[in-house]
Amino acid sequence: MVTLGLVSLPLMSGFSRNDIRLNEQKVPIGLDAHAVRGMRWNARQLIDYAIELKMDSILFNSLDYFESLEQAYLTSLKKALDEHEMSLYFGIGSLSINSTSFSNKFGPPKELIQRGLRVAKIFESKSVNCKIGSIADRYTDGGIVARMEEIIRELRSMRSQIQDADVRFAVENHAGDMRSEEVLHIIETVGTDISGAMLDPGNSVWAMEDPMHQLEKLGKYTLCTSVRDHNIWESAKGATFQWTALGEGSMDLKHYTNHMSTLCPGAPLHIETISNRPNEIPFLEETFWEGYPDLKAADLLDFYRMIRNGKPMTQIVPPADKDTELFEQEQQKKELVKSINYLRTTCPAMKNYKK
């Protein structure tokens, strides 16, 4: 059993490649704006780029991409999306008032939720992404459980408004802040009628989880995704992982997208490539486990298998005569295009290109 102090859940068993067959409904493919963060484009520029790439949807996981939240401006973006049969997904950031990532730029949590509902109405979006923050929140006063209680409290307090809007708030596992059983606890406590999951398999690695098992646990609640590939290997302090373009890491993406088509039909796979940036998981340091007081060794067996099977990666260094910012922009575009091509040509579950 996994004990959180709030809930106890049985461990989910693994499943084989033959457990779920390809659904007739194909997985939409989308652009997560963060994949081309170095371009510093606004919402309209990003929409135009997504149109050029023939995306089914685009994800702005922050309100900062919008130059304004005025209705006329947002309606003009909606018109551009409609002309190319493209959907918009968006996020409002942290709803945990004591998270290290919380920002008051768009107001306190309740006001953020209200803004999210208003923007969702304009774009006819049925979900709004939200989160706690990052792995640092596991080490704040009260730990991740206290931060979970904050987001639960905020969403429950706005239940009637959220129900009236016919919108669900998709809780993201972000930057290693939560494991799947913790996201699931929020969803089940808040209610599946007004909440769901924003699935980030790259961040599940940071939280010491196998992305396939994350999909198994949260798939039927998943409303939105943000996906990249990864490699993870043993290192001096425990493990190091590095995200990659899709198809260049250790994920079995044929298998993953096949399961998406059945477990969360209609949920788009947004590509969020973040490459060339290694991160440590220092689990050999005693203080690391202060953020995981209830985690059991049995819950980490698949994670340890991932580490043992992983191979170290080296970082790509720009040539001495190359502008660093320009190099990063070019790399981000290359990684994105490689990922799109891999999905389109290798994964039968993905939708075909738009005409």
Q: How would you sum up this structure, described in words?
A:
- This protein is α/β, with parallel strands linked by helices.
- The chain has helices spanning 43-52, 71-83, 109-123, 143-157, 159-165, 180-190, 201-206, 211-218, 253-263, 301-309, 324-346, and strands spanning 2-3, 8-9, 29-32, 57-60, 87-94, 127-131, 168-172, 195-199, 222-225, 229-235, 238-244, 269-271, 278-281.
- The protein has an eight-stranded parallel sheet with strand order 9-8-7-6-5-4-3-12. It has a three-stranded antiparallel sheet with strand order 10-11-13. The protein has a two-stranded antiparallel sheet with strand order 1-2.
- The radius of gyration is 20 Å and the shape is globular.
Which descriptors apply to this entry?
355 residues, alpha/beta, 36% helix, globular, disordered N terminus
Secondary structure topology:
Layout: E1 2-3, E2 8-9, E3 29-32, H1 43-52, E4 57-60, H2 71-83, E5 87-94, H3 109-123, E6 127-131, H4 143-157, H5 159-165, E7 168-172, H6 180-190, E8 195-199, H7 201-206, H8 211-218, E9 222-225, E10 229-235, E11 238-244, H9 253-263, E12 269-271, E13 278-281, H10 301-309, H11 324-346
Parallel strand pairs: 3-4, 3-12, 4-5, 5-6, 6-7, 7-8, 8-9
Antiparallel strand pairs: 1-2, 10-11, 11-13
